[in-house]
Design goal:
about 325 residues, alpha/beta, 14 helices, 2 domains, globular, Rossmann fold, 13 strands, four-stranded parallel sheet
Length: about 325
């Protein structure tokens, strides 16, 4: 119940903030200019707003992206970046989405359903280009491969700027890196006030959750299990590692200089975690992952296994997006309650 109430508070704050600034923001939209305004007045108002757009230059993963006008036919690839766009109220500038890990947030459901879903995973380049996009926004680098929608360089040849969520690709991202991504997208779409309101709401909620963390003499040791039977695939220094630290615990593989890493079961046993976080996504269920861990003969004397101390976190929450406060709340609740 605590997590549900906290999630409602988070989302209510985010959406209220966007509604408060939406009417005053200089952004080209199709919103009514008034019940008595003429079509000519509406067109003039839109043209005035469009003319106010100033050139935006953004460094993104060693690429310089230059925008002289607001994108109007964006395609998002991966759930956490789709939800960034929806949290900024930009659904009318989206012509396609792809690759959800689970259900979109309820508060964004109506807006999400107004946008075409191009593929359950990544669309082909042909399907992508058929939407005549003018902006591609991906959460993971895998979206911009030749066998998916194409590389960043290929898309540039088509005249389509491609933004890769930096907080999902850099080693050791922090919550501030997520805020930077939000600010960049807000700048591109000329909704900077909305971006700052969204960030302010997230900061406030993160701060409130951190106040509930008790003082402890020794940090709990955490092992994150993503997948793998022969060898476990785990978190090294990606954002979930940062969330574990914010929650007052310690990721047992945080010294590995990667975002994700394959380790050995022997290393897990040697480091004896107190808690195991199971990342929930894909075709393998949480119960199947838990059963694998509980039945693994090498793990029988591991503290977390003996106490069956598990925390389940959806990949959509662990990813670098607007669900960061929700993810932190899950961890704090699981670690101390």
């Amino acid at each position: 119940m605590k997590k549900l109430n906290t999630m409602k508070t988070i989302l209510a704050g985010l959406i209220t903030a966007i509604m408060l600034v939406g009417c005053g923001q200089d952004v080209s939209t199709n919103e009514d200019v008034g019940t008595t305004g003429s079509e000519t007045e509406e067109t003039s108002n839109v043209e005035q707003q469009e003319s106010a757009y100033e050139t935006v230059e953004i460094e993104n993963n060693d690429q310089l992206l230059v925008f002289t006008e607001q994108p109007k036919r964006a395609v998002t690839l991966n759930q956490h970046v789709t939800e960034v766009m929806l949290a900024l109220g930009l659904e009318e500038f989206m012509v396609g989405t792809a690759y959800l890990d689970d259900e979109v947030l309820p508060e964004f459901k109506e807006a999400y359903e107004s946008i075409a879903v191009l593929s359950d995973k990544y669309p082909s380049q042909e399907v992508f280009l058929a939407e005549e996009p003018d902006f591609a926004y991906a959460g993971w680098a895998s979206a911009f491969r030749e066998d998916n929608i194409g590389t960043v360089e290929q898309l540039k040849e088509f005249g389509i700027p491609a933004y890769l969520h930096e907080s999902s690709t850099k080693i050791g991202p922090t919550i501030d890196d997520i805020y930077t991504d939000i600010r960049n997208i807000a700048r591109i779409f000329n909704v900077e006030e909305r971006g700052e309101q969204l960030i302010a709401s997230m900061k406030e909620e993160m701060g409130e959750i951190q106040k509930t963390i008790p003082e402890v003499s020794e940090k709990k040791k955490v092992f994150v299990f993503d997948s793998g039977e022969t060898a476990p695939f785990t978190v090294a220094q990606n954002f979930l590692n940062s969330l574990i630290s914010l929650a007052g615990a310690e990721n047992i593989f945080s010294e590995i200089d990667k975002n994700w890493a394959e380790v050995s079961w022997e290393e897990v046993v040697d480091r004896d975690p107190d808690v195991i976080i199971i990342v929930d996504y894909g075709e393998t269920t949480v119960e199947e992952k838990k059963d694998l861990l509980l039945r693994h003969p090498a793990l029988e004397n591991v503290t977390a296994i003996k106490n069956e101390n598990f925390i389940v976190i959806p990949l959509s929450a662990a990813a670098e997006g607007v669900r960061a406060p929700y993810a932190l709340d899950i961890l704090v609740d699981g670690l101390y309650n």
